[in-house]
Amino acid sequence: MPTFTPPVRDMAFVIEEIGALDRISTLPGYEEATPDLVSAVLEEAGRFGAGVLAPLNPVGDREGCVLEGDKVRLPTGFADAYRRFVEVGWNAVPFDPDFGGQGLPWLVATAVQEIWHAANMSFGLIPMLTQGAVELLSAHGTADQKALYLEQLVSGAWTGTMNLTEPGAGSDVGALRTRAVRDGDHYRITGQKIFITAGEHDAAENIIHLVLARLPDAPAGAKGISLFVVPKFLVNPDGSLGKRNDVSCIKLEHKMGIHGSPTCVMAFGEDEGAIGTLVGRENQGLALMFTMMNNARLAVGLQGVAIAERAAQKAIAYARERVQGIGPGRDAPGPIIHHPDVRRTLMTQRALVEAGRALTYFTASRLDIARHAADKAERAAAHALADLLIPVVKSWGTANGVQVADMAVQVFGGMGFVEETGVAQHLRDARIAPIYEGTNGIQALDLIGRKLIRDQGEAMGGLLAEIRRTEADLAESGGEGLERLRLELAAASTLCAETVAWV
Amino acid sequence: MARMALAAQRRLTEAASDDPFLTAKITTARFYADQILPRTSGLAAIVTAGADSVMALPVDGF
Ligand SMILES: Cc1cc2nc3c(=O)[nH]c(=O)nc-3n(C[C@H](O)[C@H](O)[C@H](O)COP(=O)(O)OP(=O)(O)OC[C@H]3O[C@@H](n4cnc5c(N)ncnc54)[C@H](O)[C@@H]3O)c2cc1C
């Protein structure tokens, strides 16, 4: 059974037709993103994903990560694979060329990331977290912070983390208690963070933690939170590594899935206080976090699509191979793919994967337009549409990831429940995505509260108008089978409009 | 899905081909319309039924 075949033709199709690559490649800075270049990048990424990362996926699941003293050992092969990943330049794909990035559109970077997550979701989390750190420092870092950290984070030589969660502060980040005290030109951070992905590991020489903490005189709740950069090793002005900072991993969680990703309890300031520098202004921390939230949530929705793709591939291969029973209209026992119930399952998987990929890439293309279009009104409209769709991409993508992986286990029958086939790992891995980066319940609050009620349905109105245009195009094309599609789409969009009006 | 089906159909017509990759896009979109999109009517009914019965049982009743 082939382990993983990156769906590069599907990806290129969606990038061109749904992400409108021809429009994106006219944006300033993105001129090089031609269909040929994109296909070449996807082919290369596919080779790395299938050849290097996918074989490590079951190893990560079986071995997990190990805490030895205050050091974390990743599963066998992960650190080496990460070094190769950095050497080849994969970490730098979407970032600013001024800091060593390759400056490709998010639309394309999103497809590339889908390959990492599908091949090995635990591995994919390392660059995903670094990406958040790059975005925060690019947008809000001081000149010093950019000079010290950005190039190394863009290349991936150093990795990033996001330290929000504490035992008493999960969905309600405003409840966090980690303290930051001014100390000359920096701050001393003290407190405990939990569930920190890649908080400690052996794949990079330095780890740059972005930490939310509270100043002693800060207002209560969400308005009193500030953001700090806390490097594992302090960095000298010439870029060389200095003293070990007062931050360490004190425990690893034993988890249901993503065993290859270390989920760390981090202790800041057990001795003199971890040294950190402020990002942006005091008490602005949560607002700053919002600048990277769209991309981070998109990336987690994408993990759902990626795991769904991987699990669906396994289900198809098994359904072709497993002989059991006689399908309708056949006269001898044959592979289970001939049974209508199995076919329905495989088609549902395929439809959910393709729809999820289309919505995710479309949203990524709106983020590109929102950042780079010359026209202000076009930027604003793309921004509003992306804001509206992000909670949908995150929650729908991750829910489908679980559903499709669950269906794959079902297609395998008893062998799905047995770990040896590897299909159960995808279900266990997929299950985290509806939880982290804002639970799907929190996404629903965001969609209804912020994205529908606060803007009085304006962005939704724009989206519905686009759907109506698609209905008109379907009517015009007159292709057989498309008429039924148009009727169902019209019924669904009308219901959607009525439901939004009810809200 | 509809837009992918439209794009696939455009490409099929332009190239006068029957590329199975493209015809599968149309087949999958039709499946989506028949077998997945109708979920929306159930979901819409659930949303517009409101929260009364959701919150009706008091916390002590659990
Ligand atoms: C493997 C893993 C990796 C993680 N990585 C990171 C990381 O790198 N950095 C980081 O900072 N955090 C990380 N997290 C933490 C993660 O983001 C939180 O677990 C998540 O935000 C939920 O918080 P909680 O666990 O405290 O759950 P709670 O907030 O206690 O939520 C429990 C339940 O209550 C619901 N709920 C809570 N509040 C509301 C509300 N207002 N309205 C409706 N429902 C609500 C939730 O939806 C959920 O179902 C990670 C977690 C895991 C398990």
The rounded Rg of chain A comes to: 23 Å
Which percent bin holds the helix content of chain A?
40-55%
Summed over residues and divided by their number, the pLDDT of chain B gives a mean of 93
**CATH architecture descriptor name of the largest domain in chain A:** Up-down Bundle
- C-alpha Rg of chain B, in Å? 21 Å
Note the quaternary state here. heterodimer
Number of distinct helices of chain A: 16
The largest interface is:
A-B, 36 and 28 residues
CATH superfamily of the largest domain in chain A: Butyryl-CoA Dehydrogenase, subunit A, domain 3
**What's the domain count of chain A?**
3
The total beta strand count of chain A reads 12
Provide an overview of this structure.
Chain A has 503 residues and is α+β, with helices and mostly antiparallel strands. Chain A has three domains: 8-155, Orthogonal Bundle (Butyryl-Coa Dehydrogenase, subunit A, domain 1); 159-283, Beta Barrel (Butyryl-CoA Dehydrogenase, subunit A, domain 2); 287-502, Butyryl-CoA Dehydrogenase, subunit A, domain 3, CATH 1.20.140.10. Chain A has 16 helices and twelve strands. Chain A has helices at 8-17, 21-24, 35-53, 56-63, 78-88, 106-119, 121-140, 143-155, 285-321, 340-372, 376-411, 414-417, 423-430, 440-453, 458-477, 482-502, and strands at 66-68, 71-73, 158-163, 179-183, 186-197, 206-213, 226-231, 233-235, 241-244, 247-252, 263-268, 274-279. In chain A, strands 3, 4, 5, 6, 7, 10, 11 and 12 form an eight-stranded mixed β-sheet that branches. In chain A, a hairpin with a 2-residue loop joins strand 4 and strand 5 (186-197). The radius of gyration of chain A is 23 Å and the shape is globular. Chain A starts with 7 loop residues before the first helix and ends with a helix. In chain A, 49% of the residues are buried. In chain B, helix 1 (2-15) runs antiparallel to helix 2 (20-36). With 62 residues, chain B is an all-alpha fold. Chain B has one domain. The interface between A and B is medium-sized, with 36 and 28 residues. The complex binds flavin-adenine dinucleotide. Chain A: Pfam families: Acyl-CoA_dh_1, Acyl-CoA_dh_M, Acyl-CoA_dh_N. Chain A: Residues 162-268 form the Acyl-CoA oxidase/dehydrogenase middle domain. Chain A: Residues 79-156 form the Acyl-CoA dehydrogenase/oxidase N-terminal domain.
